[in-house]
Amino acid sequence: MSRTQLEHHWHPSPNTGPRRGVDRPELLILHYTGMTSARAACAWLCNPGSGVSCHYLVDEKGSITQMVEENLRAWHAGVSRWKSRDDINSASIGIEIHNPGHDLGYCDFPSAQIEAVIGLCRDIVVRNEIAAENILAHSDIAPLRKKDPGEKFPWATLHQAGIGHWVPAAPVTGGEELKLGDRGPAVGALVRHLSAYGYGLAPADAFDSIVAAVVTAFQRHFRPSRVDGIADHSTLETLSRLLSALPAPKAR
Hints:
This protein has helices at 38-45, 88-91, 111-128, 138-141, 155-160, 185-197, 209-222, 233-245; strands at residues 9-10, 16-18, 27-32, 56-58, 64-66, 72-74, 92-97, 135-137. It is an alpha/beta fold. It has two domains: 9-160, Peptidoglycan recognition protein-like (Lysozyme-like, 3-Layer(aba) Sandwich), CATH 3.40.80; 185-245, Muramoyl-pentapeptide Carboxypeptidase, domain 1 (Orthogonal Bundle), CATH 1.10.101. The strands form two sheets. A six-stranded mixed beta sheet has the order 1-5-4-7-3-8, with helices on both faces. A two-stranded antiparallel ribbon has the order 2-6. A hairpin with a 5-residue loop joins strand 4 and strand 5 (64-66). Helix 6 crosses helix 8 (233-245). It starts with 8 loop residues before the first strand and ends in a 7-residue tail after the last helix.
């Protein structure tokens, strides 16, 4: 089945094509629009000259607009990576959630909008058998470029509704931390653990700007109370808990 059964509107985008090398989507990527209005976002996502599109757009009132069939490739992820995949568009479904974003007055997501997002995600996940740990932020797959949907997005609320992988964040208590400029085995372990979760990091023992960007993205999603790119005890412990909570690999 390629279309959601939830009530929605159609506004087809020409910015699409066939999926490459996958039978069905395995990832669900959540974005914010970063524009002044959902109407403006819809127009841009359907503009042949924009080079972007998504499968669904959810406005602030919870109205859902579909632009691309789920069996087709939408152009929402850009240059991105998760685990071993770097053609995220082919492997994913993309949902744009209207919010002006960090540059235009980032605000809380209204409850009606989040209720619609939950219903849409649940519908997509069930029909496409998408694993909880493969429901991601745009910032997770493109941490050097993107912040969306950001630290105000209520991932915990989605998880309570059965959507996404989540553990309660460890409290921020101070203590030892890893930060920009640090080097050594502890940094190497951090990089390995982030990579094991899925973030696109090559092995390294230096805490450089790339590692800092990935830590920031991780915090936006999983430890939003403090987003500073510093791997403090809370960040490290939350990452450890997430890794422990991953399902065991399926036997072949």
